[in-house]
Amino acid sequence: MRVLISADMEGTAGIAVWQQVIPPDLITQGNPAPAEYEASRRLMVQEVNAAIRGARAAGATEIIVNDSHDGMRNLIPAELDPDAWLITGNEKPLVMVCDVDKDIDALVFTGYHARAGTKNGVLAHSFTGWIMDMWIGDIQVGEHGMNAATAGHWDVPLVAVAGDEAAVLQTQELVGRDCAGAIVKYGRGRHSARHMHPSKACELIEATVKDGVSRAGQIAPFKPPFPATVTVRVDTADRADKMAKVHGTSRPDGDTVSYEARNGQHLMEHFLAMMGCAG
């Protein structure tokens, strides 16, 4: 069994503010906090290693970890479980679910956060700070929904998710309660949380991933009905102007763009093209 772990950072236990998660060379507002970021990298890799242990205990024969956080070079390779492969770098196909099209049997999310605008969602956002909302048809989604729907194109089920309470509950509401969930912190606002101790969070993640991966054959992939109209609302009209330059993109109103996604692969590829124009 081949398992892909999409590893984000904002949903990691112990993390609650942007200075903890933005690589110092990429920060554009406020002051860099290199020491806090380095500590967060280690918290992140500990949770990923816990997920690897859980997947291995459930029978995974190959585990691929895709660094899916800002810049996508956050995980410390030397501290990652040596049994896993690591994908880094942000110029990669399908981005947060890179390699999901390579005969993967199960998908796992670690360190995930809720979609933009979620009450008590710790560091909640959707891909960037300027996407306000997203829908696949009439289904409201964030990163978890877009990534799970992309994986569904290749019949890959999302079997486990770890993150803050809002992220886990949103994901399970979207893809189904068969997806195992590890809640490692509870939001007290967008920039505050009540956290599990990192060691306890890792124990929970290991057990949760083991449970989800062991049931992978019984968990259905997330497959929204396609073709579907994908709608993205952004912060400004000039941002929407740039995104509308991608062929096949419509402009329902000033701050909104949309396109017709043929399937889960096209869903992500067209979205990434718009992101590239707008960023």
The chain-level structural class is alpha/beta
Strand order in the sheet with the most strands: 3-2-1-4-7-8-9
**How much of the residues is beta strand, in percent?**
15-25%
CATH architecture of the largest domain: 3-Layer(aba) Sandwich
The number of distinct β-strands equals 12
CATH topology of the largest domain: Rossmann fold
User: How many helical stretches?
Assistant: 6
Largest sheet: 7 strands, mixed
Helix content: 25-40%
CATH class annotation of the largest domain: Alpha Beta
How would you describe this structure to a colleague?
This protein is an alpha/beta fold. The model has no long low-confidence stretch (mean pLDDT 97). The chain is globular, with a radius of gyration of 17 Å. The protein is built from six helices and twelve strands. The protein has helices spanning 34-57, 143-153, 165-175, 198-214, 237-243, 264-278; strands spanning 2-7, 62-67, 84-87, 106-112, 131-136, 139-140, 158-164, 180-187, 193-195, 228-234, 249-253, 256-261.
Top keywords for this entry?
Rossmann fold, 30% helix, 279 residues, alpha/beta, seven-stranded mixed sheet
In short:
The protein is α/β, with parallel strands linked by helices. The chain has helices at 34-57, 143-153, 165-175, 198-214, 237-243, 264-278; strands spanning 2-7, 62-67, 84-87, 106-112, 131-136, 139-140, 158-164, 180-187, 193-195, 228-234, 249-253, 256-261.
